Amino acid sequence: MVQELTDQAIELLHKLIETSSFSSEEEETAQLIEAWFIKHDIPFNRENNNIWAYNKYFDEAKPTILLNSHHDTVKPNGNYTNDPFKAFIEDGKLYGLGSNDAGGCLVSLIATFTHFYDKKDLKYNFVIVASAEEENSGPLGLKSVLKHLKNVEFGIVGEPTLMQLAIAEKGLLVLDVSVKGTASHAAHPNDDNAIYNALEVIRWFENYEFEKSSEALGKVKMTVTQISAGNQHNVVPSHCDLVVDIRVNDRYRNEEILKIVKKTMPDNVEVKPRSLHLGSSSIPEDHPIVKSGIALGRTTYGSPTLSDQSVLSCPSLKLGPGDSTRSHSANEFIYVDEIKEGVELYIKILEGIV
Predict the structure, then answer these.
(1) pLDDT at 9 over 90
(2) N or C terminus: fewer CB in 10 A for the chain?
(3) Mean model confidence pLDDT for the chain
(4) How far is Cα 54 from Cα 57, in angstroms, rounded to an integer?
(5) Using CA atoms, how far apart are residues 291 and 145, in angstroms rounded to an integer?
(6) Angle at 311 between CA 310 and CA 314, to 5 degrees
(7) Which of 31, 80, 52, 310 is nearest to 173 (CA)?
(8) pLDDT tens digits, 103-115
(9) Cβ-Cβ contacts under 8 Å for 144 (sequence gap 6 or more)
(10) 195-219 b/e with 16+ CB inside 10 Å = b?
(11) With contact defined as beta carbons under 8 Å apart, do 68 and 30 qualify?
(12) Rg of the Cα trace of the chain?
């Protein structure tokens, strides 16, 4: 039965790859996922392009395990030499856009959920969510359906981790920073040049270290990623605008980081967050699901990349087939054997606790 489900999962991944599903445009891949549930006689719910389903013997008195991965993709980068929408296998690699991020994880979790769907007397319920808008952190993704989910105690988020246990994930805080100055003609003296003022601010973001470090995630990391100022060679601009990417460890909330930055900036600097909801996440190393994975030879680590974990308030584990370094790359692929291992390990890890 597991082998049959795995084969069907790989077939579904072929179909997903060959169906465009850019963020907020996932209607057709949602239909493919619906077709899986219809084929397996599993009732499901849909809101926008999110699909979710519960196990057959759902019990309100029991806690629920959330299984989640996403079916949207980024747009293919310009370095593809393969057709990104053509799924094919060569040398054991299944190529195509979204194969690694996160199609392999999604179909492996769908197969795993289907394996457990009609089993009785489990300690936990299961709910699977195939979510939309993960790649653009959109408002109509996983976060929008959490209010419908019942009794979720913890979650497994399917992202490529080589089936190792990502027990913590950094959050993301993006700041728009405007450094003020005095506009003037470039030919005249001006000791309030916004660009020169920005140099000190940039150095602060480069050198400041937050006090609290995380065992799993290390230090908070701040990076100035964009600079914009002026529109004419002979005019000193009145402001220099920066974009700052901050990767937040699990020792801080995004609101705390923002407060520290604002408190430190001089009066001529304006700081505005784009969002505060993409927080860090973690799960204790002694949690039963983590211990089950460790017992099967899996290792733990902290992940610097963002996923739908950022919108979950429950403990969550990031785990899935594939390699994060392949995500968003040209000629994206996942090994077929990674999918087979993914289904097998998902089932064994969950059997260790249910």
Answers:
(1) yes
(2) N
(3) 96
(4) 8
(5) 29
(6) 95
(7) 310
(8) 999 999 999 999 9
(9) 47, 48, 50
(10) eebbeebbebbeeeebeeebebbee
(11) no
(12) 23
